[in-house]
Amino acid sequence: MMGTTSLLCLALLCSSMAFTACVAAGLRLELTHVDANRTVEERMRRAMARTRQHRLASTDAVAAPIHWMKTQYIAEYVIGDPPQRAEAIIDTGSNLVWTQCSGCSSSSTGCFDQNLPYYDPSQSSTGLAVSCGDAACSLGSETQCASDGETCAVSTSYGAGDIAGVLGTETFTFGSSEKVTGLDFGCILATALTRGSLDGASGIIGLGRGGLSLVSQLGETKFSYCLTRYDTDTVDQSHLFVGGSSAGLSPSSGAPVTSAPFLQNPDEDPYSTFYYLPLTGVAVGDTTLDVPASAFALRQGSSGQWAGTIIDSGSPFTTLVDVAYQALRDELARQLSGSLVQPPEDGLDLCVARGKVVPPPLVLHFGSGGGDLMVPSENYWGPVDDATCMMVFRSPSESTTIGNYMQQNMHLLYDLGNNVLSFQTADCSSM
After folding, report:
1. CA distances from 69 to 159, 211, 224, 348 (A)
2. Phi, psi torsion values for 39, nearest 5 degrees
3. Residues 35, 91, 199, 415: which is the catalytic one?
4. Which of 134, 231, 312, 415 is catalytic?
5. Which residue in 60, 217, 228, 246 has the most C-beta neighbors within 10 A?
6. What is the model's pTM?
7. How many of the other CB atoms lie within 10 Å of CB of 308?
């Protein structure tokens, strides 16, 4: 973990104000796939590369998935007045809203490359620093009082490395007119992140359960997103909805809704941030895998750290705990035995000739009063060269993560007031 003391002289601004955040009628954010201008094959290869990078980084991390470094979708927005453009990965597995600031370019610890200029707080009339005594400085584990006793410092670790800076408030504008004033965010001045982990985005919008997440700061109890497919020739815009009527599902569509209750989170950081689901089993077509429900359950793993099943907007591909992955692999190999072809790349396990075979759907069984979610083959198999390959991988930890590739063309509603996640099949490009 890098130190933050030397970064505090680069404080956001010298003034401070009490924390406040307001929004009129919910937010609607347009999401752009980071590889939208690339071919289908290039998108799949880059996503697989992030998965392999994630798996290597995770072996030395906690027994929980790494979320943000694999994210494929970013939100476009502007900060301050006059507005400065920024892009951020949306991440249900972390809390902090942050962007790299202009001090990054001269920091001895360096910052990662991004597509847009760094945010410059000196050019904004609406940016304010958060002082050590402000309520916002005690909202989460990502912030702490600096050694000068005045500055609210930001420092946190991800699977891909560390970030550090100061906490400020700013006006964020989403879409054409939806302004959020006084939003607390990390003005990041130094990073030590794995190269390419954010794919040119400026930072992250955290949607987790912590006090500094976008959802918590807005005081909303619902948010939803609908992700368009990224293994097609064109990538349409996706959307994230926070609060307001747009966050709900569409009963008029006629598409069935599958719901599952969220499990009670552990109190320890970072496990208190995640959205755990009561997954109890997986079926391949009509065949239920012989995997005990305990393999997916929220529990303390062999290392003493928490493990379970997490839904994540920030991971491209689903990763299953070892016993479940092997059972899935074996059953698919049995059902597709006469159609399997040699995988075109390392890291892939099962492949069939592209356009020749349609693999069976998956069914995710959710206990504790939850329903069954049918996952079509195109949501867990993807094109690579002349083949179509299984895009589910072995987890590097004792946790299972449901990634965003499996969530495509589904409208997901996080109803925090009722503690329920709902899935509804949708044409996300039309929303």
Report:
1. 8, 21, 21, 20
2. -70, 165
3. 91
4. 312
5. 217
6. 0.83
7. 27
